[in-house]
Amino acid sequence: MAGLAQACCRDIGSGDIVWNFDLGCRGQPSVAFTPDGSFVSVFISRGDTPADYHQYAWKLESNSGNLLSEVDLVSAVGGRWEFEAGDYCIATCGGRNIRIMDTDFVQALLEVELSLGTFAETVKFAPGEQCAVVGYQSPSYPKGRIRKIAVQSGETSWDIGLSNGGITSVPYSQSCHSIAVGSVRDGQVWRVDADSGDIIWNKRIVARGTPEHRGTPTDRIVVAYSPSDTSIIVGPEDGRVLSLDSESGEILWQASRGLATCIASELDWTCDWLVLSPLSEFIRNNRMHLS
Predict the structure, then answer these.
(1) pLDDT recorded at residue 147
(2) pTM (two decimals)
């Protein structure tokens, strides 16, 4: 958005603004609700030079937008960071760093540094927050990789290469048995066994649009599990929303992106929703959060 960054909460039914929170700086924030929807965490990286980058975090009441806490997480790593909130801890990733903190940003519970030349892109907790999965880019092929780590120790359970591009999203199923993976550049969606890291299936999503692009892999795909785990909702950049069968990966239905908010509202989602446009949309307690 132009000007200073804001966190804005809208009612999912009417689209009316419930509250605005001015972040007081420029940049593209990451936003995450806690699983119970009680508060929202907002995270942004800013600085005039790479050596001067700081990461700032705010904790807000989800119903009112009232500020509960604010902290400057000093760091020499700039650029866009991704952010995940749980009931017990917060995870951030960017550059080579993965950081897990308590929900008030007071205590760093774990810091993991990836190898030279890597870039962490996204992070998700398993339900219960005993482990987390990180999507990152490596300097060698396949560039897009995912790694499962223990939250308490940082120990790696498994690490696999999937995509020739990057990794956009790595949501856990509600049962914690599998992970869905969205990609950048090669148009692939994967379902991965959460315990072993084995690939259960992968699906290539081809682009729909102008003749020169039709039939080629869509550039960027974000994914989310349905609350029942029976399907994986897929949001490619070509203006569609698709539902894939969790067991087989086959397409169950597809719709234009304009229907996505209505679909989410009807299903009463309690999991993170998709990035469906330049705005990030999250569904919690029948609210739509835009950043």
Answers:
(1) 95
(2) 0.73
